[in-house]
Design a protein that fits this description.
Elements: H1 13-57, H2 62-66, H3 74-87, E1 91-97, E2 100-111, E3 120-131
Antiparallel strand pairs: 1-2, 2-3
Helix pairs in contact: 1-3
């Protein structure tokens, strides 16, 4: 017999509601933390690619410069960009095409909260291009 004044029991409703809210909060924290890691890695990869491209584009061919021509020493440009990437712990590819230096960098970060209980890697790719020119653009 039920006590007077009580309708259907709501036993268990609070438990189900708590689980739903906890999962939603976990997902929001995961998006903030893991999403922040991914954005930071992408920003770092782009910064490294841009800086490596700038390092490479500074390698002017001295012989051509003495003759009045503006050309890049392609070997030195590629080596300079690769050294920058190696020094800063990034893997990437460097392409020298005329007065252009194009650097593509890949980085990885782990998704630790959204991928719980196991860790999942997220790969980011960034590409930057620097051009040697006669003066300001």
């Amino acid at each position: 017999m039920r006590p007077a004044g009580r309708g259907r029991g709501d036993a268990g409703f609070v438990s189900a509601w708590t689980v739903v809210i906890a999962v939603a909060c976990w997902a929001m924290v995961g998006l903030v933390v893991d999403g922040g890691r991914a954005l930071r890695e992408r920003s770092s990869a782009f910064g490294a690619a841009a800086a490596a491209a700038r390092a490479g584009v500074q390698e002017i061919d001295e012989r051509a410069a003495t003759l009045g021509a503006l050309e890049l020493d392609e070997e030195e440009a590629e080596e300079s960009a690769d050294e920058y990437l190696d020094h800063h712990g990034f893997d990437g590819t460097v392409t020298v095409d005329g007065l252009d230096v194009i650097v593509t960098v890949q980085g990885q970060t782990d998704m630790t909260i959204l991928a719980a209980p196991q860790s999942v890697s997220y790969t980011v790719t960034a590409r930057a291009r620097a051009v040697q020119g006669d003066g300001p653009i």
